[in-house]
Design brief:
The protein is an alpha/beta fold. It contains 15 helices and 21 strands. The strands form 6 sheets. It has a 6-stranded parallel β-sheet, sandwiched between helices. It is globular and about 65 Å long. The structure holds 5'-deoxyadenosine and iron/sulfur cluster (SF4).
Length: 433
Protein backbone atom coordinates (compact mmCIF):
# COMPACT_ATOMS: atom_id res chain seq x y z
CA UNK A 1 0.00 0.00 0.00
CA UNK A 2 1.51 3.33 -1.07
CA UNK A 3 1.46 6.00 1.59
CA UNK A 4 0.13 9.44 0.72
CA UNK A 5 0.68 12.62 2.70
CA UNK A 6 -1.66 15.57 2.04
CA UNK A 7 -1.25 19.13 3.31
CA UNK A 8 -4.18 21.52 2.95
CA UNK A 9 -4.18 25.30 2.59
CA UNK A 10 -6.89 27.92 2.30
CA UNK A 11 -10.63 27.68 2.61
CA UNK A 12 -12.99 25.05 4.03
CA UNK A 13 -13.83 23.87 0.53
CA UNK A 14 -10.20 22.80 0.27
CA UNK A 15 -10.36 20.89 3.57
CA UNK A 16 -13.45 19.18 2.23
CA UNK A 17 -11.77 18.39 -1.09
CA UNK A 18 -8.81 16.83 0.73
CA UNK A 19 -11.22 14.36 2.31
CA UNK A 20 -12.72 13.69 -1.13
CA UNK A 21 -9.22 13.00 -2.49
CA UNK A 22 -8.64 10.59 0.40
CA UNK A 23 -11.87 8.72 -0.37
CA UNK A 24 -10.85 8.42 -4.03
CA UNK A 25 -7.32 7.24 -3.24
CA UNK A 26 -8.46 4.83 -0.51
CA UNK A 27 -10.63 3.15 -3.15
CA UNK A 28 -7.44 2.47 -5.14
CA UNK A 29 -5.41 0.83 -2.38
CA UNK A 30 -3.59 3.91 -1.13
CA UNK A 31 -2.94 4.49 2.56
CA UNK A 32 -2.18 7.72 4.40
CA UNK A 33 0.47 9.14 6.67
CA UNK A 34 0.77 12.31 8.73
CA UNK A 35 4.54 12.45 8.15
CA UNK A 36 5.93 13.72 4.82
CA UNK A 37 9.19 11.78 5.31
CA UNK A 38 7.26 8.48 5.30
CA UNK A 39 5.25 9.22 2.19
CA UNK A 40 5.69 7.95 -1.34
CA UNK A 41 3.29 10.55 -2.65
CA UNK A 42 3.01 14.12 -1.31
CA UNK A 43 0.12 16.37 -2.26
CA UNK A 44 -0.26 20.03 -1.40
CA UNK A 45 -3.89 21.09 -1.74
CA UNK A 46 -3.34 24.76 -2.44
CA UNK A 47 -5.13 28.08 -2.36
CA UNK A 48 -4.47 31.08 -4.53
CA UNK A 49 -7.24 33.40 -3.42
CA UNK A 50 -4.97 35.62 -1.35
CA UNK A 51 -1.29 36.49 -1.31
CA UNK A 52 -0.16 34.86 1.91
CA UNK A 53 -1.56 31.41 1.12
CA UNK A 54 0.07 31.62 -2.27
CA UNK A 55 3.49 32.53 -0.89
CA UNK A 56 3.31 29.92 1.84
CA UNK A 57 2.70 27.14 -0.64
CA UNK A 58 5.56 28.23 -2.87
CA UNK A 59 7.95 28.16 0.09
CA UNK A 60 6.64 24.77 1.14
CA UNK A 61 7.25 23.24 -2.30
CA UNK A 62 10.84 24.49 -2.25
CA UNK A 63 11.16 23.12 1.25
CA UNK A 64 9.84 19.61 0.49
CA UNK A 65 11.90 19.25 -2.67
CA UNK A 66 14.92 17.97 -0.73
CA UNK A 67 12.96 14.82 0.19
CA UNK A 68 13.26 13.83 -3.44
CA UNK A 69 17.01 13.48 -3.06
CA UNK A 70 16.52 10.84 -0.35
CA UNK A 71 13.75 9.04 -2.21
CA UNK A 72 14.14 9.21 -5.96
CA UNK A 73 10.70 7.68 -6.46
CA UNK A 74 8.86 10.26 -4.38
CA UNK A 75 6.01 11.85 -6.30
CA UNK A 76 5.01 15.40 -5.47
CA UNK A 77 1.74 16.90 -6.64
CA UNK A 78 0.00 20.24 -6.41
CA UNK A 79 -3.80 20.23 -6.16
CA UNK A 80 -6.38 22.97 -5.75
CA UNK A 81 -6.59 26.54 -6.94
CA UNK A 82 -2.88 27.20 -7.44
CA UNK A 83 -2.64 24.14 -9.65
CA UNK A 84 -5.29 25.65 -11.83
CA UNK A 85 -4.03 29.23 -11.69
CA UNK A 86 -0.24 28.84 -11.80
CA UNK A 87 0.30 25.75 -13.86
CA UNK A 88 3.08 27.22 -16.01
CA UNK A 89 5.10 28.36 -12.99
CA UNK A 90 4.68 24.95 -11.38
CA UNK A 91 5.90 22.96 -14.35
CA UNK A 92 9.59 22.72 -15.17
CA UNK A 93 12.44 20.55 -13.94
CA UNK A 94 13.61 22.65 -11.03
CA UNK A 95 10.31 23.02 -9.27
CA UNK A 96 10.09 19.36 -8.29
CA UNK A 97 6.39 18.99 -9.01
CA UNK A 98 5.22 15.89 -10.93
CA UNK A 99 1.45 16.17 -10.86
CA UNK A 100 -0.70 19.25 -11.13
CA UNK A 101 -4.43 18.74 -10.77
CA UNK A 102 -7.12 21.38 -10.51
CA UNK A 103 -10.19 20.97 -8.28
CA UNK A 104 -12.25 19.13 -10.88
CA UNK A 105 -9.81 16.38 -11.81
CA UNK A 106 -9.31 14.50 -8.55
CA UNK A 107 -10.99 11.37 -9.86
CA UNK A 108 -8.06 11.00 -12.23
CA UNK A 109 -5.43 11.09 -9.47
CA UNK A 110 -4.94 7.30 -9.08
CA UNK A 111 -4.40 7.07 -12.83
CA UNK A 112 -1.99 10.02 -12.84
CA UNK A 113 0.09 8.62 -10.00
CA UNK A 114 0.39 5.32 -11.83
CA UNK A 115 1.32 7.09 -15.05
CA UNK A 116 4.14 9.03 -13.38
CA UNK A 117 5.39 5.87 -11.68
CA UNK A 118 5.39 3.83 -14.88
CA UNK A 119 6.73 6.39 -17.31
CA UNK A 120 8.70 8.73 -15.08
CA UNK A 121 7.09 11.58 -16.99
CA UNK A 122 5.56 14.60 -15.39
CA UNK A 123 1.91 14.88 -15.97
CA UNK A 124 -0.95 17.18 -15.22
CA UNK A 125 -4.71 17.17 -15.41
CA UNK A 126 -6.15 20.60 -15.52
CA UNK A 127 -9.44 20.55 -17.32
CA UNK A 128 -12.12 22.29 -15.33
CA UNK A 129 -15.20 20.22 -15.73
CA UNK A 130 -18.53 21.92 -16.31
CA UNK A 131 -20.36 19.34 -14.26
CA UNK A 132 -18.08 17.67 -11.69
CA UNK A 133 -19.75 17.89 -8.29
CA UNK A 134 -18.25 14.75 -6.68
CA UNK A 135 -21.81 13.87 -5.69
CA UNK A 136 -20.94 10.19 -5.81
CA UNK A 137 -17.88 10.60 -3.54
CA UNK A 138 -18.65 11.20 0.12
CA UNK A 139 -15.65 12.69 1.93
CA UNK A 140 -14.07 10.87 4.85
CA UNK A 141 -15.34 13.00 7.69
CA UNK A 142 -13.05 12.84 10.73
CA UNK A 143 -15.10 12.43 13.88
CA UNK A 144 -16.02 15.75 15.43
CA UNK A 145 -18.73 18.27 16.12
CA UNK A 146 -19.08 19.99 12.79
CA UNK A 147 -19.07 18.39 9.35
CA UNK A 148 -18.73 20.31 6.10
CA UNK A 149 -20.93 19.51 3.15
CA UNK A 150 -20.28 21.05 -0.27
CA UNK A 151 -23.65 21.69 -1.88
CA UNK A 152 -22.49 23.65 -4.89
CA UNK A 153 -19.18 24.39 -6.59
CA UNK A 154 -17.77 27.15 -8.70
CA UNK A 155 -18.87 30.72 -9.19
CA UNK A 156 -20.31 32.72 -12.09
CA UNK A 157 -20.08 36.15 -10.48
CA UNK A 158 -16.68 37.24 -11.76
CA UNK A 159 -15.95 39.84 -9.12
CA UNK A 160 -13.02 41.53 -10.85
CA UNK A 161 -10.50 40.86 -8.04
CA UNK A 162 -11.31 37.18 -7.63
CA UNK A 163 -9.63 34.12 -9.09
CA UNK A 164 -12.31 31.63 -8.02
CA UNK A 165 -14.32 31.59 -11.29
CA UNK A 166 -11.07 30.67 -13.09
CA UNK A 167 -9.80 28.09 -10.62
CA UNK A 168 -13.07 26.47 -9.64
CA UNK A 169 -15.06 26.93 -12.80
CA UNK A 170 -18.74 27.42 -13.46
CA UNK A 171 -21.46 27.22 -10.86
CA UNK A 172 -23.10 23.81 -10.45
CA UNK A 173 -25.27 22.40 -7.68
CA UNK A 174 -25.68 18.93 -6.27
CA UNK A 175 -28.94 17.05 -6.16
CA UNK A 176 -30.74 18.04 -2.91
CA UNK A 177 -31.57 14.47 -1.93
CA UNK A 178 -27.98 13.41 -2.45
CA UNK A 179 -26.95 16.23 -0.08
CA UNK A 180 -29.58 15.05 2.40
CA UNK A 181 -28.21 11.49 2.20
CA UNK A 182 -24.73 12.75 3.01
CA UNK A 183 -26.08 14.72 5.97
CA UNK A 184 -28.02 11.68 7.21
CA UNK A 185 -24.84 9.62 7.10
CA UNK A 186 -23.01 12.33 9.06
CA UNK A 187 -25.75 12.42 11.68
CA UNK A 188 -25.35 8.63 11.96
CA UNK A 189 -21.64 9.18 12.67
CA UNK A 190 -22.58 11.48 15.55
CA UNK A 191 -22.19 14.94 14.02
CA UNK A 192 -24.50 17.54 15.58
CA UNK A 193 -23.76 20.38 13.18
CA UNK A 194 -23.30 20.67 9.43
CA UNK A 195 -22.00 23.66 7.50
CA UNK A 196 -23.22 23.85 3.92
CA UNK A 197 -20.41 24.99 1.69
CA UNK A 198 -20.18 26.71 -1.67
CA UNK A 199 -18.17 29.49 -3.28
CA UNK A 200 -21.49 31.20 -3.73
CA UNK A 201 -23.67 29.02 -1.59
CA UNK A 202 -26.98 30.87 -1.79
CA UNK A 203 -26.97 30.68 -5.60
CA UNK A 204 -27.70 26.97 -5.07
CA UNK A 205 -30.33 25.69 -7.47
CA UNK A 206 -31.25 22.17 -8.48
CA UNK A 207 -34.61 21.77 -10.24
CA UNK A 208 -37.27 23.14 -7.92
CA UNK A 209 -34.87 23.43 -5.03
CA UNK A 210 -33.27 26.77 -4.21
CA UNK A 211 -31.07 27.34 -1.16
CA UNK A 212 -33.98 28.04 1.23
CA UNK A 213 -35.67 24.75 0.29
CA UNK A 214 -32.36 22.87 0.50
CA UNK A 215 -31.80 24.12 4.06
CA UNK A 216 -35.29 23.00 5.02
CA UNK A 217 -34.58 19.55 3.57
CA UNK A 218 -31.29 19.29 5.48
CA UNK A 219 -32.96 20.44 8.70
CA UNK A 220 -35.34 17.47 8.51
CA UNK A 221 -32.46 15.09 9.26
CA UNK A 222 -32.76 13.75 12.83
CA UNK A 223 -29.68 14.23 14.98
CA UNK A 224 -28.48 17.37 13.18
CA UNK A 225 -29.16 20.22 15.56
CA UNK A 226 -27.37 23.13 13.95
CA UNK A 227 -27.00 24.15 10.32
CA UNK A 228 -24.60 26.83 9.13
CA UNK A 229 -23.58 27.94 5.65
CA UNK A 230 -20.78 29.83 3.96
CA UNK A 231 -20.22 31.92 1.87
CA UNK A 232 -23.22 33.69 0.45
CA UNK A 233 -23.31 36.65 -1.95
CA UNK A 234 -25.50 39.65 -1.04
CA UNK A 235 -27.26 39.46 -4.41
CA UNK A 236 -29.03 36.18 -3.55
CA UNK A 237 -31.18 36.66 -0.44
CA UNK A 238 -34.72 35.94 -1.57
CA UNK A 239 -37.49 36.36 0.98
CA UNK A 240 -38.11 32.60 1.31
CA UNK A 241 -34.50 32.04 2.37
CA UNK A 242 -34.70 34.71 5.08
CA UNK A 243 -38.10 33.39 6.23
CA UNK A 244 -36.69 29.86 6.47
CA UNK A 245 -33.76 31.18 8.52
CA UNK A 246 -36.05 33.18 10.79
CA UNK A 247 -38.51 30.35 11.42
CA UNK A 248 -36.29 27.25 11.50
CA UNK A 249 -34.71 26.72 14.93
CA UNK A 250 -31.98 24.46 13.51
CA UNK A 251 -30.60 27.14 11.17
CA UNK A 252 -28.05 29.24 13.00
CA UNK A 253 -28.70 32.96 13.13
CA UNK A 254 -25.42 34.01 11.60
CA UNK A 255 -24.89 35.41 8.12
CA UNK A 256 -21.50 36.14 6.66
CA UNK A 257 -22.29 38.95 4.25
CA UNK A 258 -19.23 40.09 2.29
CA UNK A 259 -19.39 43.85 1.68
CA UNK A 260 -15.86 44.25 0.16
CA UNK A 261 -16.04 48.07 -0.05
CA UNK A 262 -18.30 50.95 0.98
CA UNK A 263 -18.05 53.20 -2.07
CA UNK A 264 -20.34 52.78 -5.08
CA UNK A 265 -17.68 53.41 -7.72
CA UNK A 266 -15.36 50.83 -6.16
CA UNK A 267 -18.22 48.34 -5.78
CA UNK A 268 -19.02 48.81 -9.42
CA UNK A 269 -15.47 48.25 -10.68
CA UNK A 270 -15.31 45.22 -8.40
CA UNK A 271 -18.46 44.01 -10.21
CA UNK A 272 -20.25 43.32 -6.95
CA UNK A 273 -23.64 44.19 -8.55
CA UNK A 274 -25.01 46.09 -5.50
CA UNK A 275 -24.67 49.65 -4.26
CA UNK A 276 -23.87 50.78 -0.75
CA UNK A 277 -27.54 51.68 -0.26
CA UNK A 278 -28.77 48.29 -1.47
CA UNK A 279 -26.37 46.52 0.89
CA UNK A 280 -27.45 48.70 3.82
CA UNK A 281 -31.10 47.98 3.04
CA UNK A 282 -30.43 44.25 2.90
CA UNK A 283 -28.62 44.32 6.26
CA UNK A 284 -31.50 46.27 7.83
CA UNK A 285 -34.07 43.89 6.35
CA UNK A 286 -32.17 40.83 7.64
CA UNK A 287 -31.92 42.33 11.12
CA UNK A 288 -35.61 43.12 11.16
CA UNK A 289 -36.65 39.62 10.07
CA UNK A 290 -34.11 37.73 12.22
CA UNK A 291 -33.76 39.52 15.55
CA UNK A 292 -30.38 38.98 17.19
CA UNK A 293 -28.77 37.77 13.94
CA UNK A 294 -24.98 37.95 13.90
CA UNK A 295 -23.63 39.62 10.76
CA UNK A 296 -19.99 39.33 9.72
CA UNK A 297 -18.25 40.51 6.58
CA UNK A 298 -15.20 40.62 4.29
CA UNK A 299 -13.48 43.87 3.28
CA UNK A 300 -10.74 44.53 0.73
CA UNK A 301 -8.73 47.74 1.08
CA UNK A 302 -6.61 49.29 -1.66
CA UNK A 303 -8.49 47.99 -4.68
CA UNK A 304 -7.03 49.64 -7.83
CA UNK A 305 -7.93 53.33 -7.98
CA UNK A 306 -9.39 53.45 -4.44
CA UNK A 307 -8.94 57.03 -3.21
CA UNK A 308 -8.65 58.18 0.40
CA UNK A 309 -12.22 59.52 0.25
CA UNK A 310 -13.51 56.22 -1.11
CA UNK A 311 -11.75 54.31 1.65
CA UNK A 312 -13.27 56.69 4.23
CA UNK A 313 -16.64 55.59 2.94
CA UNK A 314 -15.77 51.97 3.76
CA UNK A 315 -14.97 53.10 7.32
CA UNK A 316 -18.30 54.93 7.46
CA UNK A 317 -20.28 51.86 6.42
CA UNK A 318 -18.35 49.73 8.92
CA UNK A 319 -19.19 52.23 11.67
CA UNK A 320 -22.80 52.32 10.64
CA UNK A 321 -23.51 48.61 10.08
CA UNK A 322 -21.69 47.37 13.19
CA UNK A 323 -20.72 43.90 12.01
CA UNK A 324 -19.89 41.47 14.80
CA UNK A 325 -16.58 40.70 13.12
CA UNK A 326 -14.84 41.00 9.78
CA UNK A 327 -12.12 39.42 7.67
CA UNK A 328 -10.05 42.27 6.27
CA UNK A 329 -7.54 42.06 3.42
CA UNK A 330 -5.21 44.20 1.37
CA UNK A 331 -5.98 43.91 -2.31
CA UNK A 332 -3.55 41.61 -4.01
CA UNK A 333 -3.55 41.10 -7.74
CA UNK A 334 -4.36 37.63 -9.02
CA UNK A 335 -3.41 36.28 -12.44
CA UNK A 336 -6.25 35.79 -14.93
CA UNK A 337 -8.68 38.07 -13.11
CA UNK A 338 -10.45 40.96 -14.83
CA UNK A 339 -8.77 43.42 -12.47
CA UNK A 340 -5.31 42.13 -13.43
CA UNK A 341 -6.12 42.81 -17.07
CA UNK A 342 -7.97 46.11 -16.72
CA UNK A 343 -6.99 47.90 -13.51
CA UNK A 344 -3.34 48.49 -12.58
CA UNK A 345 -2.57 47.68 -8.94
CA UNK A 346 -1.79 51.34 -8.22
CA UNK A 347 -2.44 51.88 -4.51
CA UNK A 348 1.02 51.93 -2.85
CA UNK A 349 1.74 49.10 -0.43
CA UNK A 350 2.23 51.54 2.43
CA UNK A 351 -1.16 53.15 1.81
CA UNK A 352 -2.80 49.71 1.73
CA UNK A 353 -1.15 48.85 5.05
CA UNK A 354 -2.23 52.11 6.68
CA UNK A 355 -5.80 51.61 5.51
CA UNK A 356 -5.85 48.03 6.74
CA UNK A 357 -4.50 49.05 10.15
CA UNK A 358 -7.16 51.74 10.55
CA UNK A 359 -9.90 49.36 9.48
CA UNK A 360 -8.74 46.56 11.81
CA UNK A 361 -8.53 49.00 14.73
CA UNK A 362 -12.07 50.28 14.08
CA UNK A 363 -13.53 46.79 13.67
CA UNK A 364 -11.75 45.53 16.79
CA UNK A 365 -13.44 48.24 18.81
CA UNK A 366 -16.86 47.48 17.30
CA UNK A 367 -16.40 43.73 17.93
CA UNK A 368 -15.48 44.47 21.54
CA UNK A 369 -18.52 46.71 22.10
CA UNK A 370 -20.82 44.17 20.44
CA UNK A 371 -19.43 41.38 22.60
CA UNK A 372 -19.65 43.48 25.76
CA UNK A 373 -23.33 44.04 25.01
CA UNK A 374 -23.79 40.28 25.58
CA UNK A 375 -22.66 40.51 29.21
CA UNK A 376 -25.59 39.40 31.38
CA UNK A 377 -27.25 37.48 28.53
CA UNK A 378 -27.69 33.70 28.37
CA UNK A 379 -26.76 31.54 25.39
CA UNK A 380 -27.15 27.92 24.39
CA UNK A 381 -23.61 26.82 23.61
CA UNK A 382 -22.42 23.76 21.68
CA UNK A 383 -19.20 22.55 23.32
CA UNK A 384 -16.30 22.05 20.88
CA UNK A 385 -13.32 21.21 23.06
CA UNK A 386 -11.01 22.25 25.88
CA UNK A 387 -10.28 25.92 26.49
CA UNK A 388 -6.90 27.51 27.13
CA UNK A 389 -7.02 27.26 30.91
CA UNK A 390 -7.26 23.92 32.73
CA UNK A 391 -10.86 22.95 33.45
CA UNK A 392 -12.13 25.35 30.81
CA UNK A 393 -14.14 24.37 27.73
CA UNK A 394 -14.84 26.34 24.55
CA UNK A 395 -18.11 26.28 22.69
CA UNK A 396 -20.07 28.36 20.24
CA UNK A 397 -23.33 30.25 20.35
CA UNK A 398 -25.89 29.95 17.61
CA UNK A 399 -24.41 33.20 16.23
CA UNK A 400 -20.99 31.48 16.01
CA UNK A 401 -19.36 33.39 18.87
CA UNK A 402 -16.74 31.52 20.89
CA UNK A 403 -17.57 31.18 24.61
CA UNK A 404 -15.10 30.00 27.24
CA UNK A 405 -16.36 28.71 30.59
CA UNK A 406 -15.44 26.26 33.34
CA UNK A 407 -16.93 22.79 33.48
CA UNK A 408 -15.55 19.43 34.55
CA UNK A 409 -18.37 17.34 33.10
CA UNK A 410 -19.18 18.65 29.64
CA UNK A 411 -17.77 16.92 26.58
CA UNK A 412 -17.46 18.01 22.96
CA UNK A 413 -20.89 17.76 21.33
CA UNK A 414 -22.80 18.59 24.53
CA UNK A 415 -25.07 21.61 24.74
CA UNK A 416 -24.96 23.97 27.73
CA UNK A 417 -26.69 27.11 28.98
CA UNK A 418 -24.09 29.76 29.72
CA UNK A 419 -24.44 33.23 31.24
CA UNK A 420 -21.96 35.74 29.83
CA UNK A 421 -19.84 37.57 32.41
CA UNK A 422 -17.03 39.18 30.44
CA UNK A 423 -15.98 39.78 26.85
CA UNK A 424 -13.00 40.53 24.65
CA UNK A 425 -13.11 41.40 20.93
CA UNK A 426 -12.76 37.70 20.03
CA UNK A 427 -14.26 35.67 22.87
CA UNK A 428 -17.05 35.69 25.43
CA UNK A 429 -16.35 34.41 28.94
CA UNK A 430 -19.22 32.90 30.89
CA UNK A 431 -20.53 30.75 33.69
CA UNK A 432 -22.31 27.42 33.25
CA UNK A 433 -25.93 27.57 34.45
N1 LIG B 1 -7.18 40.36 -2.91
C1 LIG B 1 -7.58 40.54 -1.63
N2 LIG B 1 -8.61 39.89 -1.08
C2 LIG B 1 -9.30 39.02 -1.86
N3 LIG B 1 -10.36 38.23 -1.61
C3 LIG B 1 -10.63 37.53 -2.71
N4 LIG B 1 -9.77 37.84 -3.70
C4 LIG B 1 -8.93 38.78 -3.20
C5 LIG B 1 -7.82 39.51 -3.73
N5 LIG B 1 -7.43 39.35 -4.99
C6 LIG B 1 -11.08 38.21 -0.33
C7 LIG B 1 -12.52 38.74 -0.50
C8 LIG B 1 -13.35 37.49 -0.40
C9 LIG B 1 -12.51 36.65 0.55
C10 LIG B 1 -12.81 35.19 0.51
O1 LIG B 1 -11.18 36.88 0.14
O2 LIG B 1 -12.81 39.63 0.56
O3 LIG B 1 -14.66 37.73 0.10
FE1 LIG C 1 -15.04 35.34 -5.95
FE2 LIG C 1 -17.07 37.10 -6.19
FE3 LIG C 1 -17.45 34.47 -6.73
FE4 LIG C 1 -17.07 35.25 -4.18
S1 LIG C 1 -18.79 35.84 -5.49
S2 LIG C 1 -16.10 33.49 -5.22
S3 LIG C 1 -15.61 36.94 -4.46
S4 LIG C 1 -16.13 35.90 -7.86
Amino acid sequence: MKKVYIETYGCQMNEYDTEIVKTILAGHQFGFTEVPEEAEVIFLNTCSVRENAHQKVQNRIANLKHLKRRNKKLIMGVLGCMAQNLRDELLGDNVGVDIIAGPDSYKKLPELIRHVEDSGEKDFALTLSEFETYSDVFPRAEAGINAWVAVMRGCDNFCTFCVVPYTRGRERSRDPFNVQDEVRQLAGQGFKQVTLLGQNVNSYRSGEYDFGRLMKLVSEVDGIERIRFTSPHPKDFPENLLQEMAGNPKICKHIHLPLQAGNDRVLQVMNRTYTRREFENLAAHIRQLIPGVVLTTDIIVGFPGETDAEFEETLQVIRELQFDSAFMFKYSERKQTIASRKYPDDVPEQVKSERLDRLIELQRLISLLKNEAHIGQKFKVLVEGPGRKTGQVIGRTDGNKAVAFFSDKLLPGDFAEVAIQAASANTLMGELL
